[in-house]
Amino acid sequence: MIYHSTRNKKEKADSKEAILKGLCDDGGLFVSDRLREVSLDLNEISGLSYKETAKKIFSLLLDDYTEEELTAAVESAYTGSFDTESITPLSSIGDDFLLELYHGPTCAFKDVALQMLPQLMSKALKGSGKKILIVTATSGDTGKAALEGFRDVDDIGIIVFYPYKKVSDIQYLQMATQKGKNVEVCAINGNFDDAQSGVKRLFSSNACKKLSASGISLSSANSINIGRLVPQTVYYFESYKRLCHENIIKPGDEVDFCVPTGNFGDVLAGYYAKLMGLPVHSLIVASNENNVLTDFLTTGVYDRNREFRKTISPSMDILISSNLERMLYYISGGDCDLISELMKNLSETGRYEISPELLSKVQEIFKSGYANDRETKEAIRRAYNDTGRLIDPHTAVGYKVMRENKTEGIPCVLLSTASPYKFCRDVYEAIFDEKEKDSAGKDGFYYMEKLSEGTGTAAPESLRSLKSKPVIRKDLIDIEDMGGYILKKAHEDMIF
Ligand SMILES: *Cc1c(COP(=O)(O)O)cnc(C)c1O
Fold this sequence. Notes:
Blueprint: E1 3-5, E2 8-13, H1 15-21, E3 30-31, H2 42-45, H3 50-61, H4 67-78, E4 90-93, E5 96-100, H5 110-114, H6 117-125, E6 131-137, H7 141-150, E7 156-163, H8 169-176, E8 183-189, H9 192-202, H10 206-213, E9 216-219, H11 226-245, E10 255-260, H12 265-275, E11 280-287, H13 292-299, E12 301-303, H14 324-331, H15 336-349, E13 351-353, H16 356-365, E14 366-370, H17 373-387, H18 393-405, E15 412-416, H19 424-432, H20 444-455, H21 461-464, E16 475-478, H22 482-493
Helix pairs in contact: 1-6, 3-4, 3-11, 10-22, 11-12, 17-18, 17-19, 19-20
The structure holds pyridoxal-5'-phosphate.
């Protein structure tokens, strides 16, 4: 399997190189033209466990890893880190299905990929004498999932920056209590955008050059890395298998998937599964009020020139869905010139447009819709009252959009991307319609308890136990000091 850039076929890499680099030199994303030729026999995986299916898929898509390397990576990633043996259980929500992707250490779907990526990176580094320092800015969720995935992994260190006092109290505690000898967590004076631009600048800073001279390269582990994408294809196959086992469908029958979407990574993995032979009928792309994708999938015009909206589904507050570039590459039949032109337009004008012919190809597979905050809360309430299921705001966006777009007569699987207990206040208020008059001073744990009492369900242990964990990460710096901070940590404090 040879990977190359979506924007030119000359820049080549095997999967280990692609995983270590993340992004191509020309700014494009790594893709492989062999994806369509790889196919997974559903009968062959029918009796396999989650880990075995994962190994099978990794050995097809990341074929320069040895079997031993993949076995070790899968075992480290998925043993003891999820609170269920099946990793991603499938359950019912009314007449539809919920693929529960929130059973990992941080209670959100990014765990599935971020438990695996560090293992793949570490194996790719072995024997090279090189080390990697991951630096990431987070608005709350991704950073924690990355910390959990990278902690105590050989030859890799991780530093996460978050905006001081601008993450929720639960998110703050998740990070401030983080254990691990190779991890650092640091607040910065500024907002999330400041943190993110600060991290971007680090990649061309003097600090980066100095680290590089001592054999440490910076990396970001973001969602365009194929090492994050590939692990996400696994649960599409897993959920299909379970529908077969429960006689909901027969092997070969088509299924719809509805995916709450931000950067287009999760839903792209569903498209990869389809290209690998999974009988997917439609992929329903669900957005919140930052509905740039709904507009694109309806009109063929991608236009990020619009107001950024803060919503109650913050992990989907995104105006540039980077992974869309990969879908356009495959659906255009591998037209690098077209992709280069579109992405040039996007960076210069914030806008691009595809032809009506290409749009109709896209629409054969991708459907779309969106929910605003009011509709999202309504969907949380409705799911609870009609089906007894407690869902988080991201999943609720999907629930609303699924009901409007699913295909008659075809089972639909809704990807549930976070535990409702990660967003207990909004979920509690949506169901019980009780705006607390004096909510000031009430913290996340207060609502965790209220939600638990009100619904007779238990909050995940990893969130409940935060209350009693010691805060061990207290660093706070100015943006200008980020370069000095990573140098000091990498050279003095951190044990690689
Ligand atoms: C990241 C995230 C999403 C969006 O996934 P993409 O791969 O960026 O489309 C949806 N829900 C939750 C809870 C997330 O953390």
